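[User]
If only I could read backbone structure tokens as easily as an amino acid sequence. I have put the entry right below:
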Amino acid sequence: MRVFLFCFALTLAWPSAAADRITGRAFATRSEVIAPKAMAATSHPLATQIALDVMKQGGSAVDAAIAANAALGLMEPTGNGMGGDFFAIIWDPKTRKLHGYNGSGRSPKSLTLEYFQQKGITDIPPTGPLPVSVPGTVDGWFALHGRFGKLPMKQVLAPTIRYARDGHPVAETVAYYWNRSVPKLSQYPGFKEHFTIGGRAPRTGEMWKNPSLANTLQKLADGGRDAFYKGDIARTIDAYFKANGGFLSYEDLAAHQGEWVEPVSTNYRGYDVWELPPNGQGIAALQMLNVLEGYDFTKISFGSPEHVHLFVEAKKLAFADRARWYADPAFQPAPVAKLISKPYAAQRRKLITMEKPLKEVQPGTPQELQEGDTIYLTTADANGMMVSLIQSNYRGMGSGMTPPGLGFILQDRGEMFVLKPGHPNSFEPGKRPFQTIIPAFITKDGKPFVSFGLMGGAMQPQGHVQIVMNLVDFGMNLQEAGDAPRIQHEGSTEPTGQNTAMSDGGVVQLESGYPYETVRTLMDIGHHVEWALGPYGGYQAIRRDPETGVYYGASESRKDGQAAGY
């Protein structure tokens, strides 16, 4: 009965052959935003306006991205904040190349696998002191600013400081997720005092102030990154965890250092798609694209059974390798070049048949050898610099651990560690956990084409692939590519080593917009199909016209966001 109702709903939702928009874009909720000088796309309109204002004042796209990220920590604390981690890809028009930054923090050095074993803990809890790792965001801000910033950091952070003191009205989606977080996080010291109004979440449109966050940002504006990692902020964090059964220490914060990394890519039908290497999951998108490139999508339409089936099967193959290989490369180097190679994809593609889905998938063996709330933003300036930036506290508002007087919550990214000796992602002191957050970029013929990202745990590489396919295979514009209904497959070998529901092939979850015939065919060949439990992800993107330099922006309808330019 559940599947029948699902199929009936999809039948009603499927658009007719004639698109419902005058421009003929069947899935787009609105037109692309087009501007000649600069563009910003974030998940909150006020953050987008801050980014544009910074660029109007002479700031670079990096200045604008930092300003917007700081604002989102105030305005969308349900997905990010300076207590979390940070990754970015930057197109530098001077060097005409992409630069990657890995701003993920490490586990506390005083916490060991033996501690968990002695306590009988088999999985790291999602909240409280144990999943907390060093926050890498602030270090990332200053690293990017030091290389590509133009305005003083005081000027970059000033808009958020003002909003934190004066207040801003809470957006609808943010209010919804905030309300969901309050019951489970209010048990932790400092959360209720800093992130509720009389014990409840702020409501849609209600003014929200965070004077503690304003004070913390002012300390960064005045004292730089060391004010966070080596000053009073670090000492406050240290004392808080010592008083509340935690392990994160001043020494852990003082030792933190993010790193510049080389982005990696694969070519998909003439377009170079770029991701960052592990400890993130970005190369899963590249592996999926390599497998899918072997099929002729000029003969496969969007939403057809063939489209969904091939996408899901490619995902299964990539995620098996994700579980085996993706971890902190300082502890477990992955054979990245082999995993994203075309010959390896051809080898793995042989496992796919059109007649039935794969039920169980083992990791491949190259020779020589899933939940999370996040923000994604992208900016582009008049000089041609483009920034793809993603930042997160991981699960919702994070661990709930809220040190006094600082105005932010520490992340729970350490939940992603495995408490099994010998596993690539096994917990070790001073190690970076597996990361779900991934920025993306597309170039064509050596020129910047699209800066984009899509939030949502294990959905992120799946979303990246769908955006690329929508643009390249299905001819969608930037807005339509994000608004089109999405596929999410659940049930793969996870970074924890668990083989979740893959004994029967997992579950294909579809947003409304797929035709009944597709659902029926997928079920007939053995897929388990369910109604989407999403919505899946939150997408922002900027495209640059290589001939005119004009920017196109998009921000989808699943979030409160905005793309805008000047």
Q: What stands out?
A: The mean pLDDT is 92. Residues 37-104+136-224+373-411 form one domain. The first strand starts at residue 33 and ends at 35. The first helix runs from residue 2 to 13.
